[in-house]
Amino acid sequence: MSTTESYPRPLKITIVGAGIGGLTAAAALRIEGHEIFETPSMNKEIGASITLADNALRVLNYLGFDIEHLKAGDYLGVAWFDSKGGEDWNLLVTKEEPVRAFEDFDAQFTALFALVDGPVHLWQIRSLLPLPTWINGRAALIGDAAHATFPTIGQGAAMSIEDGVTIACLLPLGTTREQIPGRLYTYQTLRKERGEFVVRESLEQVTIPSKRGLYSRSPEMQVFIVNHDAVRVARENLAVHVTI
User: Fold this and answer.
1) Which domains, and CATH codes, for the chain?
2) pTM here?
């Protein structure tokens, strides 16, 4: 065996649309020793506020991000102001505008707009319906591409982070091209049900009155979501069920 054949060869992996999940995957795959080509969608981001619970922070710790180093300055407070410019996501419109948008609906539904008093807030937020599959050959969906969700329980970014590190842990150095489809099937097995659970609960806790605020009232749901260790779960599954 030659010297070059004595060492495992890295995979060459392309990440398209490197958002939170893609950046996590890139960082974790580099830890595994692979070569990464990424097409970022966040290269002009200057920062935004998101919620990261313990399940996401465990992954960041694994990647070497010390939260103590993230402090850019002394906290002074939060100020709300009217931002101008760009596309508005929360508009005030007259009630006639949504009436026109729903004019093809049955009268028993459009009659509800007569009950509206004053202007209407027009804004958009979307939740992705479950997809039949997240994988195809050596390609896989992660993050919002697989499970876009309402921000109701503050787990959208965390699910993307878990996706990214799960794929990386299932593709350790030494994985061959031929093994990738099987590893991605394992990724889907580990992630799809969990991601879709968060999507479903985030939607239902907005749209079903009896479920509003359920996450904050359910210790069992909090434990299921927040106590999850994506790195440990992926590695244990790889060791038990997958032949390297």
Assistant:
1) 4-65+127-241 (3.50.50.60), 90-123 (no CATH)
2) 0.77
